[in-house]
Amino acid sequence: MSEISSICVYCASSSGTNSAIIDTTRSLATLLADEGINLVYGGGAVGLMGLMADTVLESGGTVTGIIPTDLFPREVGHQGCTELIEVHSMHQRKMLMFERSDAFIALPGGLGTMEELTEMTTWAQIGIHTKPIGVLNVDGYWDPFFSLLDRAIADGLLKQENRNLLIEADGPTEMLEALRNYVPIVETKWLDLDQT
To answer: pTM for the whole thing?
Structure first.
């Protein structure tokens, strides 16, 4: 069983309209706090990002927010984080989120969430890391995404082993258990991303 002390959660800077997604965000945040797992996220105080951070903090947990200075006004940097780190670029943000985390979870989200999820999975695919990557498939939100991946496999554009890098679960408790039980299926080839 893997030791997980810090999890990066990718989530939207909008709240959305689906109550199941909002409820799951709260449940995941409460679970992380109860388990003593530090939340690493994009540092915003609005949308699901803000809800995630607020709930972790209200539940007695710790939060590391990482936000580019230029996005501070738009995403409203969360001043209540246990640690709020301002960086100069999106690349620095994603790198630091990666370095500070033992695992990753994507909640339902928009293009930013999708980009972060697919980039982290690509890094795992080419052997940059072996950290577990989870997708919380709330209310079937990610079903079309998984269907696209299955189509890519059928058309010979994606290997099944790389599709298997994504751990799917419907709820936070199931997800955390799956992340802890994850066994890497690819070898780490590069440890220094600056060398790739």
So the answer is: 0.92
